[in-house]
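name: query_chain
kind: protein
chains: 1
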Amino acid sequence: MMPANNEDTIISTSHGTLETPEATSKPRKMRLWFLVLGALGTILVSGLLGGWLGYQASLRDRLAEEENQKAIVAATQYQLGLADLAAGRYDTARKRFEFVLALKPDFPGAMESLAQAMMGLTLQQTPTVTPSPTAQPTPDTRKEEELFAQIQQALLNQDWQLAIDTIEVLRKLNLTYRAVDVDGMYYLALRNLGVKNILEQGLLEVGIYNLTLAERFAPLDVDAQNYRIWARQYLSAASFWGVDWRRVVNYFAQIYPALPNLRDGSGMTATQRFRIASIKYADQLAAQGQYCEAQIHYENALSIAPDPQVQPTLEVVREWCANPPGSQVTPTETPTPGSGMTPTPSDTPLPSETPTP
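structure:
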């Protein structure tokens, strides 16, 4: 006999059981709802992703527009500064050039123009003593005038050492000849020679000495002060080479992002010193079982330049960091260039002064 309520009946046949339409309607409705919710979620995620990408694009466009505006303002102020410089308005020109360097530190010619403005300002502020007329015969200054012209030409040629040597000859010949003008030229030559020795020649001590002498004639500009500070910090950091790798790494981590190619007489740049010191310090940490700390410094070194000799050590240390071994294993010492150089260690800490960005 058939059951009284046949709506939910499961029909038995020779091939199996069949569900009635009412029994299968609920799963179908559930699947339909899942499909609808999935479609809505996809639309929502797509909308959010599109909005985020649009925001990023507009942000890049706005930043590019801001850089363009800075370049336009810097160029305008630089041209006005040149006009002020030519008209003898040295203080106004100085302010304009400093504003340009604050906007665009690498603006072509701004640093040299600032130095000229400061030299002119120094000369302008120095009172000129007018001697009282006397009945003495007119001195023969043809030799002094010739030397003075040679100094001017050397400055135009940016031959700073020749300008300084010629100034010394002129001073020995006649210490009072156009003393104020000669002092201004002496400042300009010393300042630029000091910067050149620090940035190009790797003569850090000599460059520091040049800038210190220039400072006796007029205050140094911001760039020259920063170069002198970085040179001092490089020398202080290098004094710990081979003695305290932790200090070397910490100090050169501050130096190389600002002046990556800064070097001393050894020829090693700040970037190279940071890379080598990071490897040495990582070896030291790994030998002490501090594998995770060692991993960080190995990775820092390899981020600067790949090294097939260090890469396997990094892989081992990375594995030990994730799964510390039962016994301490010292990684193979990694050979690094520059091992023959042993600067004299010093306990002098880095200068407390910090360069102005």
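note: Residues 21-86 form the longest helix (66 residues).
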